[in-house]
Amino acid sequence: MKSEQMNENVLNGETKSFLSFKLEHENFTIPVMKIMEILEVPKITKVPQSPNFLVGVINLRGAVLPVIDTRIKFGMTPIEFTINTCILVLSIEVNEEVIEVGALVDSVSEVFELNTNDIKQVPTLATRYRADYVQGMIQENDHFIMVLDVDKVFSSNDLDSINIASSSNAKSEVIHKD
Amino acid sequence: MEEMKATYIQEANELLENLESSLLSLEDNPNDKSNIEQVFRVMHTLKGNSSMFGLAKIAEFVHDLETIYDKIRQGEMQLTREILNTTLASFDHLNLIIIDSELEDPTNKENHDQLIYQIHQFIQKKSVTPTTTENSQQQTVNGSEHMQDEVGNGVKTYHVYFEPKPEFLLDGSNPLLLLAEIAQLGKTLIIPHFKKLESIDDFQPTNCIAYWDVFVEANCTKATLHDVFVFAESNAIIEITPYLFTDLIANTEFSEFVQATIFKDVKLDAAELTSLIERVGKKVEILQQPAVKSASDANEALKTAKVETKEKVVSSIRVSSDKLDELMNLVSELVTTQASLTLYNQKNETPELEIISENIEKLSRRLRDIAFGMTLVPINNMFSRFQRLVRDVSMSLNKEVQFVTEGGETELDKSIIETLTDPLMHIIRNSLDHGLELPEKREALDKPRKGTVKLKAFYSGISVYIQITDDGKGMDVDVIREKAISKGFMKPDEVLSDKEIFDFIFYPGFSTAAVVTDISGRGVGMDVVKRNISELKGSIIVDSKVNIGTTLTIKLPLSLSIIDGLLVEVANVFYIIPLSVVDKCYEVENKEMIGNFNQLLTLDNQQIPFINIHKEFGYSEISDADNSQIIVVSDADRRVGISVDCIIGEYQAVVKPIGKYYRNQDFISGATILGDGSIALVMDTHKIIDLYTEHAKTELVS
């Protein structure tokens, strides 16, 4: 039985669990393996002079967890808090280091099984999001779901470039210069 | 010295671990060149370390072993199973004698000699009897004699008569070291004597004319005492007499009797001594097993001896730093949880709960202290390494230097200390090379011939400061300014403070040294120093005066810390200001701050610059209330007011990192969880003040 499965894997790719969620009206999905937990939105403490996609920090059972507004990160309008808004606690890998970060999303939809072979390449021109954030897309009935490369989206590597572009306030430029 | 020894033992253990794995793989694969090299290298390092710490016996032993592997390496010898067996046996032996470097344990001594004999046989490839065998045989004979002498164990008094031959000093032996060694065994009374000289012509400064009567009260065997003199035996008369009496040294009659002979050339009358001892001493009660005579008993004794040594080894263990980090995290979570318990208790006054809460507070505080004690090491470990560096560098530069260290007890995270070693070494080299002048020049300048380099560490708030000061020629601000202009780092018309100008020395490619030496001056280095320190989230400041000297101050954050702070609120966000920097709090009317052109407030008749946090942090111009609180904080040599909306009170804060995402917001040094679960941000007032002054300047320029 097991060996059959193995063969299938080689032929047909791997089957993994994915979680889909919504930002505005778009559907996105990431592997369940990357998600540690899903939280209701607690009190968020904003860190002064930080880029606006960094919403602030929360207390996750005694640890301090930074929270990112995924919508701003994707060039959408800032998130509006509703009863469905929640935080995905993600474990991402940056420079061979695993860090945890919270991602604010409008709502979570469902967990589903997906064969990696079903992920289709995105034509680079077809997306209005940064191409390197998107691993591919899948078609479900009449709509598309973007499969995200979590490590890239939430890595803090491109912080410096984003910083200046996104900071609305001139003073923070002075801060970030050094 | 104890610390150095601990370092040595730790390093040696690591080396031996390496050695063992290499040896075991050699066993499977005796021709593996790289492994033989590895074994040789490890032995070589171990030898070097041992002789550096003056452990001659270990060094000699390893040297002999190393010789075998050198020959194998060179192809002069073939690695045989016998050699491997002996090496592994030697390895076991080394493990034991690392902590018994003077071979005080007779078993070790015996093994030692036997192994050396075997090793020599391998080296010479013929079974001639080298001196060591004689020695070891003699030793065994002596050993059995001692056994008979022994009557049980327990504290006894030994009378050691030690008379070095006149030529004793010629080979560099120091009788005082032997006496010091005896003194470590127990309570001692040492009576020195001098031989009478017939005339002044008989006086030879190189001859030893002193001899000693030593009384030791110790729980040791006669063999142990004998071993102290093992290298002196051929050159001195040594008589060791055991007495089964104690409490002699404390006895006035006894000490008066023996002290009467002090410095005189008289021998203690044996019969008189014995009778006196029998009269005043306390007889040792013999209730344990009689003399260890039979072979089986002897074996038994050896076994216990071995067990004892093993127990000594276990007294310190190595724990992975991950586990320690985990422990620290748990402890800080406990402190946080305890804060919420206290908060809950304040709301629901229950007497029983109060007792429990207080107990938990006490326990968690103790636990915190212990956990912190485990990861932090005194900076002294690092300081002592620099002594040698200073000596060598100053010799090669022909400079006379006095190296002073202060605050060695200041504790820092072990990993920080490791990263800090290289930058500090660089700075000290710079001080020696560029800072201090040559002795002649110093004298001409009316300075003491000997230059001083001072290394000082101290705590302040949530930071540790390390200062390197020299009293050398200092740096000229104008020279640096010109150099900075010529290199294009600053515009000729720019107005900068001295501190800012000194900062240029950390720019890559900036060197003011006229002569480049092999020690320093190539203009590489200071930028690396700054980078290393920035990686540790530290900062470095230079202060220098021509002909007076240079001071470099490094500031480092404590990695994970629990600090006493002042909990304040700005625009509904909680902040913690470390209590250690807080000077005084004032209340001022908001209208005094708005439109304040020169950003100064008059408090207690003093003009104090202030920072409007409300505005600087981008909330709004000022809070809606009528008043603000001004917290005057001290930052190095200045006092600055920080305005906040309201002060809540004192709070013991577990400072946690806020993560990589906020690496550009370094004026927040971390966050802490309050009793009700909300978060307070910890301000780094030093950075805030720096930022503010920089910011104000940019505004002026633009």
Can you walk through the features of this model?
The complex is a heterodimer of chains A (178) and B (702). Chain A has 178 residues and is an alpha+beta fold. Chain A has a single domain (15-175), classed as OB fold (Dihydrolipoamide Acetyltransferase, E2P) (Beta Barrel), CATH 2.40.50. Chain A has helices at 2-12, 70-73, 150-153, 159-166, 170-177; strands at residues 15-23, 26-31, 35-40, 54-60, 63-69, 86-94, 97-105, 107-115, 134-140, 143-148. Chain A is globular. Chain B is an alpha+beta fold. Chain B is 46% helix and 22% strand. Chain B has 22 helices and 23 strands. A five-stranded mixed beta sheet of chain B has the order 8-10-11-13-12. A five-stranded mixed beta sheet of chain B has the order 21-14-15-23-22. In chain B, strand 10 (451-460) and strand 11 form a beta hairpin. In chain B, helix 1 packs antiparallel against helix 2 and helix 14 packs parallel to helix 15 (414-435). Chain B is elongated, with a radius of gyration of 34 Å. The two termini of chain B are 59 Å apart. Mean pLDDT of chain B is 77; it is low at 126-152, 286-295, 304-313 and 514-524. The interface between A and B is medium-sized, with 30 and 34 residues.
Strand line-up of the largest beta sheet of chain A: 8-1-2-10-9
Label the overall shape of chain A.
globular
Q: Roughly how many Å apart are the termini of chain B?
A: 59 Å
Could you state the CATH homologous superfamily of chain A?
CheA-289, Domain 4
CATH architecture of chain A: Beta Barrel
Our count of helices of chain B gives 22
Radius of gyration of chain A: 18 Å
Number of helices of chain A: 5
Outline of the structure:
The complex is a heterodimer of chains A (178) and B (702). Chain A is built from five helices and ten strands, in the order αβββββαβββββααα.
